[in-house]
Amino acid sequence: MPKTHSSQQVDERQRERTSASVASSSHSAQSHASLDFSNIDRLAGKFKVPGVVRAGSERDGGSLPDEKGFSIQVGSELYKLSGASIMSDGYLITPTDGRHFVKLFADAQFYRLPRLQSQLFESEIFVEVGNEHFRIPRDIFSAPGDTPNYFTLGFTVFFSSPGDVFPGLNPRGLLRPPAIHPPRIPNRSPKIFADLLHMLRGYALTIQNEDHRSQLLKDARYYNLRGLEQKLIPYTVTHNIDRRISEIVIRLQDIKASQISILSDVRKSTDPASPTPQPLRSGWVTYARPFVDETRHELILETSDPMLLNLETCRLTLFGTTRSRVTSLFQTVANKLNLPTTAPLGLMMLASEGASTQTLSPSSTPLSEDQVKVRFGNDTHIILDGVDRAFDELQWCLVEEESTGETTSSDRPSKRRREDFGDTASSKPQFWALNRSQWRLRIQPRPVSSAGGSEVEIVMVAVKIDATSKQKTRNVQRGFLTS
Fold first, then answer.
1. Which of 7, 184, 213, 296 allows an S-S link to 288, with CB 3.0 to 4.6 Å?
2. Tens digits of per-residue pLDDT, 435-463?
């Protein structure tokens, strides 16, 4: 015989157990739900507004008598509830973990409790990452760029199709809600996820090393936390007093094409009677980090990939992914200048993602040749073979004066004798291998004698370079795989 509960006991159970008790009992391996819901099933669709039904209130359609008692058996227990209690859907319950959440969700769908469904939709997000459970407040994703993300999109899909919450099953033919697995991400690190949550709560995080940063960035991108990603990317923003402008140093691979712009040397007039502005002839490339920066800064891009500098021609040869990324960056600048391109769109998209494509090079853009033009200034910091070097060895690679454009041939020293990349102390190599470098990007008029289809070109202006001129220097810097 099933156990029977009095009205007082039922009221107390109703407050304590709510739908969680029903869910826990209905999911038990030994329990079987036998529900006499013939009247409720018939009347459920006639109520448009869920809530506590009070005596004497108007009803939209039929209802159960408020004071009449009804017996409902769940598993081995028998509950006696009034008609008003059955017809109400007004209560507050907080899930304790992911398993509890999905049981409540399944019961809310099975017993047709729209208010509970709404509460669950607005509740905290429960997820298991690796082998650890996390309880995530929804307002933690309030920063720009952090929503929609992996979790908010997942829960939106979870609640977007209530009619198909049990795929392949007919809800009317079910004796109890089927088992639903709680949200789980088994292939991600719980420690890294805890660090990301720590930052999302507004706290500073001590990044242990570059491997730690790389792991944080990898998972921030996996979870689509784009605003947090920008905070994890290494950068510096400073104000250059001499140049009277704000500067940002950022890695080449972290630059977002959509955030590129150009600051013209000629400021636009605010006089409405002024003539139509001419196409941009000279300026500097600027950048603003998405979701973070409100103002733009002059861009200084940094790369740690090897490049080869020809000291005679002042040209830079790029390799691999650096070649692809620089090509994509140049094309973005060309697009900002409304210059045409002859490169296929698909290849340019691959290059923007860092894919190495042999057919794409800076010459695929209207702003550069295959080997990129570079210039040095008196303020360029040069580290050659581990030693600070004076600038006088690169006088012919000076930055052109903005008023005159290209330097004349008489301004350049005679070219050096062509020699190999050698080891002897007496040799003066023609090439420097750049290990790390920082560059500004300059837009300037293209010399008449230069090849190219546009009137302007892009020049990489060196800010800081770390180079080697001898193979021995490279071997000295080379480490052993094991200590």
1. 296
2. 999 999 999 998 875 655 678 999 999 99
Predicted structure pTM score = 0.72
Omega before residue 162 within 30° of 0, cis: no
Residue 19 CB-half CA count within 13 A: 30
Cα distance between residue 40 and residue 87, in whole Å: 8
First CA to last CA across the chain, in angstroms? Answer: 76
What's phi and psi for 92, nearest 5 deg? -125, 130
Report the DSSP beta bridge partners of residue 238: 247
pLDDT at residue 323, as a whole number: 94
**Could you give the C-alpha distances from 181 to 116, 189, 310, in angstroms and in order?**
19, 20, 61
Per the CB < 8 A criterion, the answer to whether 257 and 329 are in contact is yes
Q: Answer whether the bond into residue 445 is a cis peptide, omega within 30°.
A: no
Q: Which helix (H) or strand (E) holds 387?
A: strand 387-388
What is the residue whose two structure tokens read 């950048």?
A: 287
Asked if 292 and 231 touch (Cβ cutoff 8 Å), the reply is: yes
Answer whether residue 53 shows pLDDT above 50.
no
Between 74 and 263, the more confident residue is 263
Q: For residue 62, what are the CA distances in angstroms to 19, 50, 159, 352, 441?
A: 24, 14, 28, 63, 74
Q: At 182, phi and psi to the nearest 5?
A: -70, 160
| Segment 247-297, tens digit of pLDDT | 999 999 999 999 999 999 886 545 555 555 567 789 999 999 999 999 999
Per-state percent for the chain, helix, strand, coil, to nearest 5 = 35, 20, 45
Structure token digits, residue 110: 């099975």
Would strands 297-303 and 245-251 be described as parallel, antiparallel, or unpaired? parallel
Which amino acid, one-letter code, is at 15?
A: R
Q: Token match 């109703």: residue?
A: 14
Q: How far apart are CA 299 and CA 261, in angstroms?
A: 9
Measured CA to CA, the distance from residue 23 to residue 104 in angstroms comes to: 6
Structural tokens at position 106: 């399944």
DSSP letter for each residue of 74-108? ETTEEEEEEHHHHH---------SHHHHHHHHHHH
